Amino acid sequence: MFRKWRERRVLASTAIPDALWNDALAALPFVTRYSRDELARLRDLVVLFLHGKSIVGAQAHEVTPLQRVIIAVQACVLVLELDLEWYDGWESVIVYPGEFLPEWEWEDEAGVVHKAEGPMAGESMLGGPVVLSWPDVEASADWQGSGMNLVIHEFAHKIDMRDGDANGCPPLPPDMSAREWKLAFDAAYDDFAARVDEEEDTAIDPYAAEHPAEFFAVVSEVFFVEPALLQAQYPKVYAQLARFYRQDPAARDA
Ligand SMILES: [Zn+2]
């Protein structure tokens, strides 16, 4: 209850100017799929998201108000029919002026220390920030050219990490079956990985074959931006995502 009260206070005192909001939507063609009513709810979510998270530049990158809204809109599209609580437990989004070298290292069972293979366009850390390269966020606006959406990708990882390490299966609501999810995703992942192995030219980003967690993040991008493609190639995965995100974007394009 306190949370809802606090949210109402934030919404009563903070607004995104119309010009800024319209500029952000103009930069994100896939968002035009939503109705006026949905866009109004999305705008409220964006206000609350920007109130709750800090979006900061790294390496002298200056994050403009438009960049903040463009990032927040895409982050909030995923939770439009869920809840912002999916993004609880961490504080910030860090924006680099280009691809970046991750600073983390990890030690394997043999005690060998590995560094990440950089550079990276984006990263989501468990309990930590989302890191984005601004030029890659910008490139995502043109799906036909880039075939990717970096912000949706990284925030899908955040949703996946709601119950611990990213494994390709977020915590499911009580009306969904983990078994059905696994059946749909395992079959699609195996099929996709085989197609990538055979060097088939896939319309879906071949990076999805890296790991089931990457598959979930990549198919979430396709679900929101080019839903008919996902529905045609992996209808059972599309159906699971539609139930999970409580949205059916392909139906609007039909
Ligand atoms: Zn990823």
The radius of gyration is 18 Å
Assess the beta-strand content as a share of residues.
Answer: 5-15%
| Shape, per Cα inertia axes | globular
Strand order of the biggest β-sheet? 1-2-6-5
* Structural class by SSE content: alpha/beta
Number of helices: 12
Uncertain residue ranges: none
Instruction: Give a list of the ligands.
Output: zinc ion
H and E order: HHHEHEEEEEHHHHHHHH
Describe it for me?
With 254 residues, this protein is an alpha/beta fold. The protein has 12 helices and 6 strands. The protein has helices spanning 2-13, 18-26, 36-52, 65-77, 134-140, 143-146, 150-160, 178-197, 212-225, 227-233, 235-245, 249-253, and strands spanning 54-57, 92-96, 105-107, 113-115, 122-124, 130-133. The strands form 2 sheets. It has a 4-stranded mixed beta sheet. A two-stranded antiparallel sheet has the order 3-4. A hairpin with a 5-residue loop joins strand 3 (105-107) and strand 4 (113-115). The radius of gyration is 18 Å and the shape is globular. The mean pLDDT is 94. Zinc ion (ZN) binds next to helix 7 and helix 9.
How would you describe this structure in keywords?
9% strand, binds zinc ion, four-stranded mixed beta sheet, alpha/beta, two-stranded antiparallel sheet, 254 residues, 12 helices
What are the SSEs and their pairings?
Layout: H1 2-13, H2 18-26, H3 36-52, E1 54-57, H4 65-77, E2 92-96, E3 105-107, E4 113-115, E5 122-124, E6 130-133, H5 134-140, H6 143-146, H7 150-160, H8 178-197, H9 212-225, H10 227-233, H11 235-245, H12 249-253
Parallel strand pairs: 1-2, 2-6
Antiparallel strand pairs: 3-4, 5-6
Helix pairs in contact: 2-4, 3-4, 7-9, 9-10, 10-11
The structure holds zinc ion.
